[in-house]
Write a structure and sequence with these properties.
Length: 214
């Protein structure tokens, strides 16, 4: 199986090529507090995900998180909203299948701007790589209330994606400290979670990074 950061004839974004992510923290509820605790726990990449706030409120929160992540040298990703990501000085954006197409997003973002793509099948993951995604979030692996409209893809699909795709792959959806061990056995190095990081964030980041040996 190809290494997660090894690419054949595909250029890796400089911001991603030096390390595996390990714990990929996605904020919720108290976004700033979660970000601060995650950074103290040694997180390497963090995503601000807010589906409910007004855009001016989102920008204020993004600015605060950017300041924290910059202090700890943590990659800062904004979910969905390229404008919030660019104005706040984030390192990148996470785009879903129904968001702005990747190729259009590239036209309005600077060099080395990280664009992650959410994929729910092997075909979507391969397509995202072919179009120039910097990394892929694959899932939901297991059932999760944050993705009620999507059927879990299971561990077997994650394994197929790891084998076929040469850009970094982040497993997401219903992950916890127990099933991460199963994912580790098939080569997963990057695990994204929302609910699990809502409390005791610092300690949980440390535990996930320890489990994934990053």
């Amino acid at each position: 199986m190809p290494g997660l950061f090894q690419r054949n004839c595909v250029k890796i974004n400089k911001k991603l090529q030096k390390t595996n992510f390990g714990a990929y923290v996605i904020t919720s509820k108290n976004h700033v507090k979660t970000a601060a605790e995650a950074c103290k726990g040694g997180v390497r990449i963090l995503q601000y995900r807010d589906k409910y706030s007004k855009r001016n409120e989102m920008l204020k929160v993004a600015d605060e998180i950017r300041a924290i992540t910059k202090e700890y040298n943590v990659l800062f990703i904004v979910n969905d909203f390229i404008d919030i990501a660019l104005i706040s000085g984030a390192d990148g954006v996470q785009l879903g299948q129904d968001d702005i197409p990747l190729e259009r997003a590239r036209k309005i973002t600077p060099d080395n701007f990280v664009i992650g793509i959410s994929a729910h099948s092997l075909a979507q993951a391969v397509e995202a790589e072919n179009k120039g995604a910097d990394y892929i979030g694959i899932g939901p692996v297991f059932s999760t209330p944050t993705k009620r409209d999507y059927k879990p893809i299971g561990i077997s699909t994650v394994k197929e994606v790891l084998f076929r795709v040469n850009i970094p792959v982040v497993a997401i959806g219903g992950l916890n400290l127990e099933n991460i061990k199963k994912l580790k056995k098939i080569g997963v190095k990057n695990a994204a979670m929302v609910r699990m990081f809502q409390g005791n964030t610092m300690e949980k980041v440390k535990k996930v990074n320890f489990l994934l040996k990053v």
